[in-house]
Amino acid sequence: MVKAKSWVMAQHFDGFPKKSDFGLKVEELPEPKDGEVLLEAVFLSVDPYMRSFSKTHMKEGDVMIGGQVAKVIQSKNPAFPVGSHVVSNSGWRTHTLSDGTGLTPILPEWPKDVSLSLALGAIGMPGLTAVYGIEDVLGLKEGETLLVNAAAGAVGSVVGQIAKIKGCKVVGSAGSDAKVAYLKELGFDEVFNYKTVGSLEEALRKASPEGYDCFFENVGGPSSDVVLQQMKNFGRIAVCGSISTYNDSQPQTGPYPYFTMIFKELKMEGFLQSRWEHKHPETLKRLLAWVKEGKLQCREHVTKGFDNMPAAFMGMLQGENMGKAVVAV
């Protein structure tokens, strides 16, 4: 019998999450039955979507949702031998019994010198999100100018690098001088700290006086309306996230950018990476190849200890991370 820990949402978040919103549970798991495996978490992910999905996909007492890289420690399923590693949407748990449904084995060609935690980041869901947003939603072309906000985060930092691989000018917005320096190291053409610029409009115009062909939106809120004013005619916007609104107790209203969208003839599309699930295996191999070739740099913000999951989650929502935020068990 294995003792499994899990973090549950003790009560729905009201505004920004607080420690008392979470509860730690311990239970004993039975031995795996035929066809089942016992997983032990190695790395767990904390992501912005968990905050927004908690409103619509969870009820009080549910285990917090999320992905993890796990090791198979017992197996009665030949597809998942003991000692192998998988990506699993098991949520915030140390151990999970699974019948194999939804488990994704780590790519067999995964290099030994590359941390498996990247399967939760640049070679995982955030990387997939970046690729599909750029290629399938925006249709980004060589020579175009792309703006990405929350640019030092798990998705934004990959978006900018892929856009550079494709021969584009990349402008990034981030929330600290350290993040600005990091993005310049990654090869972004222009970067600014949105918290310290006197005018967002002026910062955008200075970074790209000719405007923007594409905008990869991660933040939402009033700043997005300022960006739309700077879009070129027929510009395209991929709406990936709205982290600035996730902790609002009351939904924000306005501004309403319809006239701008009409007269500039803009195209705006929201998306989830799961739409292209059929392409995941091929896309993950492309992302891994870019990492191996040195074209895609990966930084992680690692918190140690399963007991620190809530703190890691809240820190990520406050922007403490550069790159992907993960918890190492």
Automatic annotation (TrEMBL):
<dbReference type="GO" id="GO:0032440">
    <property type="term" value="F:2-alkenal reductase [NAD(P)H] activity"/>
</dbReference>
<dbReference type="Pfam" id="PF16884">
    <property type="entry name" value="ADH_N_2"/>
</dbReference>
<keyword id="KW-0597">Phosphoprotein</keyword>
<dbReference type="Pfam" id="PF00107">
    <property type="entry name" value="ADH_zinc_N"/>
</dbReference>
<keyword id="KW-0560">Oxidoreductase</keyword>
<keyword id="KW-0007">Acetylation</keyword>
<dbReference type="InterPro" id="IPR045010">
    <property type="entry name" value="MDR_fam"/>
</dbReference>
<keyword id="KW-0443">Lipid metabolism</keyword>
<dbReference type="GO" id="GO:0047522">
    <property type="term" value="F:15-oxoprostaglandin 13-reductase [NAD(P)+] activity"/>
</dbReference>
<keyword id="KW-0644">Prostaglandin metabolism</keyword>
<keyword id="KW-0521">NADP</keyword>
<dbReference type="InterPro" id="IPR014190">
    <property type="entry name" value="PTGR1"/>
</dbReference>
<keyword id="KW-0963">Cytoplasm</keyword>
<dbReference type="GO" id="GO:0005737">
    <property type="term" value="C:cytoplasm"/>
</dbReference>
<dbReference type="InterPro" id="IPR036291">
    <property type="entry name" value="NAD(P)-bd_dom_sf"/>
</dbReference>
<dbReference type="InterPro" id="IPR013149">
    <property type="entry name" value="ADH-like_C"/>
</dbReference>
<comment type="similarity">
    <text>Belongs to the NADP-dependent oxidoreductase L4BD family.</text>
</comment>
<keyword id="KW-0276">Fatty acid metabolism</keyword>
<dbReference type="InterPro" id="IPR011032">
    <property type="entry name" value="GroES-like_sf"/>
</dbReference>
<dbReference type="GO" id="GO:0006693">
    <property type="term" value="P:prostaglandin metabolic process"/>
</dbReference>
<protein>
    <recommendedName>
        <fullName>Prostaglandin reductase 1</fullName>
        <ecNumber>1.3.1.48</ecNumber>
        <ecNumber>1.3.1.74</ecNumber>
    </recommendedName>
</protein>
<dbReference type="InterPro" id="IPR041694">
    <property type="entry name" value="ADH_N_2"/>
</dbReference>
<keyword id="KW-0379">Hydroxylation</keyword>
<comment type="subunit">
    <text>Monomer or homodimer.</text>
</comment>
<feature type="domain" description="Enoyl reductase (ER)">
    <location>
        <begin position="15"/>
        <end position="327"/>
    </location>
</feature>
<dbReference type="InterPro" id="IPR020843">
    <property type="entry name" value="ER"/>
</dbReference>
